[in-house]
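Hello forum,

I keep getting stuck at the same step: I have a sequence, I want structure tokens, and every attempt I make locally crashes halfway through. Rather than fight my setup again tonight, could one of you with a working pipeline run this one for me? It's a single chain of 462 residues.
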Amino acid sequence: MKVLYVIPNFNSYVLAPPLGVLYLSSYIKKYTNANVVIVEALRDNLSDEQILNIIEKENPDLIGIHCLTAFYKQAVTLCKKIKSMQKKYKVHLGGVHPTFMPYTTLKDSEADFVVVGEGEIPIKKIIDNNLSTKGIQGVYTLNDLKNDETQADGTPVKKAETVMDLDTIPFPDWEMLPPISYPHSPHAVIARGNPIGIIMTSRGCPSRCTFCSSNNFYKGIRQRSVNNVIEEVKFQIKNLGIKELQFTDDNLTLKKDYIIELCNALLENNIKIPWSTPNGVRADKVDKEVLNLMKKSGCYLIDFGIESANNQILKNIRKGETIEQIDYSINLASETGMITQGNFIFGLPGETKETIQETINYAVNSKLDRAGFFALRLLPGSDLSKKLKNKYTLNINNSFISKPDWLPEGLTEEYILRAIQKVYWQFYFRPKRLWNLLNDIPISQVKYIIKCMINYHLFKLW
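Reply #2:
Ran it on my machine without issues. Output:
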């Protein structure tokens, strides 16, 4: 049996290996007799027609399409094209978007089924059952569902069974998509080494931030053993030739004993390689001891999810932190010599022109070296999207860096977009910040930096 996975082509300035699909590939190969083919249309800039030609040539038994909200339109359009081919291929969609909108996704895409939740166990069962989806938890056809939340029999939609011991999942299938095959366009926009190794030490986040869907996708947190992580780090250095590590956990520093054990293990194994946390960490989950140890073990950049400088807005989104706590941790990280990065969201509940200016003032005058500013996107599966369900319509033409999906009272789309444009210029065009940034940009990344600036609408709004 042959399984073919497709990463659709879409407009993105970040080109990084798709960890979820690579984990699926390695899991399928270890626990079934199926072969796996991965079509990386984003990396290879493939058109849908080129993808269809590859499918026809490979003639797979099952096709999976990776589907996130940022490229939902491309995923469902591709799926419909595959279903219209002369041979009737069996196609499914998986990822965060179909997990929270399974009925809508099936209707839009004409797929045979969707996987709700993590894919390893359900896909193994489907292969073992000779592609039958009957009775497999978390796997739904259109006939199985009444709407996005309810099954046809009236019971709630259930997520798929999950692998509780992450050490039993083999390392991602790097043979299929080696890091060196990707251009120097890292998750964090600027990186020091190439190729870049991407590692996740955990799945899930127990925080309840209302704008994020991770806590509802994973439910709780599972962590790999530090020994397992170190073995993968060694593998990536020896076999893949990586020159930098990016830990892409939702929150690498969530458990203090774990991050201390990990940093000590990197030092004890004499692993001398720069690493960073581009997905961000919680400011209340680091202290002087942790930050100094991270720096000593190779961490050169730490990213903080800040969202807003207004404490009431932080309270509205259940951030569980104050701007004073966040600022304290940024200053501590800066004192260790790390590059500090922060991410902000404009247009959260309670946002006003005054709170936007408050956030701009904070960001510009903070000790952050880099920052990202985004308009609010209401991601399917987030508590905020559920709360505002009847007050907005998800625009599938918007990318992740795009127009806001919803507007607080008194604000306009243009005001938010101009505020983002304004803060980028004010933040980065301070002499010291700009000088340090320019010194950090390798020649190989210049074209991606320009693309990033265009995506962030730094030159024109639209």
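The chain has a mean pLDDT of 92. If your local run keeps crashing, start a new thread with the error log.
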